[in-house]
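Aggregate trends can hide what the representation actually does to any particular protein. In the encoding step, the backbone of a single protein was reduced to a row of integers, each denoting a local shape. The record that follows shows the chain in one-letter code together with its fold in token form.

***
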Amino acid sequence: MGTLYVLEQDVYISKDGGVLKVSRRAGREKLLERPLAHVSDIVILGDAVITPAAIYACTDHGASIHYLSRTGTYKAHIAPIENKNVPLRIKQYEAYLNPDWKHQLAKRFVEGKLHNAMVFAKRGGADISEMQALSSPIARCNETESLRGLEGNAAKLYFSLIKDRFPESFALESRTRRPPRDPANSLLSLAYTFLAKECQSAIRIAGLDPYIGFLHEVKYGRPALALDLMEEFRSILADSVTLSLFNRNMITIEMFEDTKGYPSLTDEGFKQFLRAWEERLNQTVNHPYLKQKLDYRQILVAQARILGKHLMAELDEYLPFTVR
């Protein structure tokens, strides 16, 4: 199972038996065919049209359809009917409404993020002693707003430690967003968008509500639990892919354009990003608790299910995914 990315504009996605077809609208020139059984998600960047028959077939097979703008902003999705595990979602709401339980879960996500960020920074030769010093205050913290402040401090420190790993042409002075002010921030934001999409899909597969989180505040339309889960994976997936693309010269400064007041990838740049993103997600690693090799998409689902087992009292605590 994999993700079908559609970057071409003015194309038509249809179903022919058990096969998805991407064709030019005019003349129906066939560009791609993919067995539906091999597709877990369709990501449409731009204005491709998908037929109702293809939509129904995708949702019947459990595949979601995601709509992003040409610059990578997440706009909407079509997903299969929600998982029917109502008792699990009730427990999720109970945890959200219980201040102590909610705080403990928020702390686990921050601890996972801090650990993986320190490992990633150390791999690049950084002195992580200041980040390590935040571990004890986070462990002792008993108030969620203070925890968010500590997490913010850790994030600022982390970016100060990795900014020297960006090539000179992609210098990262500070993290900026909405809009990103430079190509480095633009690519980081794009990677985080794709990571959030993957986390949201994993959470739905596990039967949880992606909008009820514990670390991130619940707001209208915000997938708070997906944002919680992605904290563990920001450095080891999104940041890792971004730095690899720059340092391996797979994305160059010429692959950015500034037509909307902020830098965004050209079509060729997008293709390079998607190749690297899929390559990283398909990489298999040992899961420290499950004791088996999984690719990163499977690990995201596994983490959502570990959270579910904790909520259902099958595990004493939620165990974040950590790397060595």
Summary: The domain at 2-78 is CATH 3.100.10.20 (Ribosomal Protein L15; Chain: K; domain 2). The chain has two domains: 2-78, 86-311. The chain has a mean pLDDT of 90.
